[in-house]
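User: I'm putting together a small comparison set for a docking exercise, and I want a reference complex before I start. The sequence is below, and the ligand is adenosine-5'-triphosphate. Could you produce the 3D structure with the ligand included, as structure tokens?
Assistant: Of course. I'll restate your input first, then give the structure tokens for the complex.
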Amino acid sequence: MSLDVTPNQRPAPTRNMEQIVSLCKRRGYMFQNSEIYGGCNGFWDYGPLGVELKRNIKDAWWHDMVTSHNDMEVLPGAPAIYSMTGIDSTIIMHPQVWKCSGHYDLFHDFMVDCRESKKRYRHDQIVGRWVQAKGKRIFATTQTSEQELEQLERQAMKFFKLRAKNKEQMEWDGDVIALVDLDAEHHESVLAPDAKTLDTLTEPREFNLMFKTTIGALGGENDAAFLRPETAQGIFVNFKNVIDSTRFRLPLGIAQTGKSFRNEITPRNFTFRSREFEQMEIEFFCHPDASGDWYRFWRDRRMQWYQDLGLSADRLILREHAASELAHYSIGTADIEYAFPFLPTGEYGELEGVSHRGDFDLRSHMEGKLTKELELELGEDGKPKHRGSGKDLSYRDDLTNEKFVPHVIEPSAGADRAALAFLCEAYCEDQAPDEKGKMQTRTVMRLHPRLAPIKAAIFPLVKKDGMPEVAKKIYLDLKKHFNVFYDDKGAVGRRYRRQDEAGTPYCITVDGQSLDDQTVTIRDRDSLKQSRVSIDECVAAIQEGLASQ
Ligand code: ATP
């Protein structure tokens, strides 16, 4: 018995970020961390629905990339057969890892402080425009955001003490430009994003994004360690261990998911830029001669993955970095970007970066920190600035006997950014009949069934006549197979609406007829169609329905 599932005719998702954020809190997808104490900026907690969603994303990624990977046949678009495996390394690693990887010296942003508002900004995220009124010309600024221009206008009006009706007195000059592009001699004219007077920003200062901690009780500077800012390095330092302890040959991808930490100067846009987040990274080791083909394969494969799980191709772009942006050893980097609703139209935010890293990382851990020209970086004393492990991390092909340092392709994704993109894409308002058949607006999360936190909800129509007993039995049967939810509170229409907001693909209702003929209705979240299915066939029907999308 199969469900009557109409192909998912998706109305355009609602692109209103405030509504999405409010639903996330109301329904338990995400909460501000330590909220009862006023929150901790840049940290987010996942609630009962959010934890399932994020787990489903990570499981789908691990399943699709690692465990279900077909290593017996050449995949479409791939240059050859390849293997995949995984590891789980620690968050705190030997401090030398970050010295050789370059993060210790180079992983920083420039920040500026405002002496007046005491606020801190990332230098590259301030934009501004020249404006003149009352005989004074200033460079009004704001942080890059959707309301960029309105905010600039408000900022300038406040400075010139103008009311809205007199805003025409301001003459704007030139385009909005980044503060970093403003010539230094104009800094006296800069009005900081939250200041009332001019020239309150400090000079830009470097700020390392790694969280520092101490190993052991004594804790001198020599015991300083860092929370990892990416999971990738755990894979590089274990490359040799994986090769030596398994029978894998190259090409081989090693995957890892886990927490990463970056002390971002301006965390914002909900969970998009957080200070603690989860990554899903693959380091794909291959022969240097084939690395260009592998780079293109991975770039396209990862782009397709997001679409297979429901992100619309119209809202995704693959942005190839210009040759001038690339490190000299790299032949390509592409960012997979999504049109998040909090960004201005035409702008995209990074979901994942796919980069060709050459042999930079393995060689750095062998020899010591390398320059972009792949030469050993020397300190003032002419000695290597940061010494490598001295271990041989090259690979010997047992068939050809060739020995080489593998090249690496790195598809590096963020689980939290993926969760946010799937939530933004899923949020939708449409018209659905209520119990009396009257059309009402409903909010529905059209999450892909693989990602939906709850796969089916089970309701007795009323709490009497033996219906709860039948419904509870179905619930316990289904629970062995899926994450399901039992609800017997309130009008059934309202129960449907709650499940629509939770993104639950199917609602099963036990009614009077169920007691006579052992059937139930199964309602499809998207098409709203109801099918009558025998109780014995419920599991199979849901299984089939979930698999058909
Ligand atoms: P951005 O330019 O947005 O700071 P990035 O280029 O520094 O990102 P990578 O170092 O390539 O990011 O990290 C890989 C992935 O990890 C990103 O594509 C993103 O999905 C995720 N990620 C990175 N920084 C954050 C963060 N602060 N919060 C949430 N996810 C992040």
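Residues 4-9 have pLDDT under 50 and may be disordered. The pocket of adenosine-5'-triphosphate is lined by residues 230, 262, 264, 273-274, 277, 279, 350-353, 412-414, 416-417 (CB under 6 Å).
User: Thanks, that's exactly what I needed.
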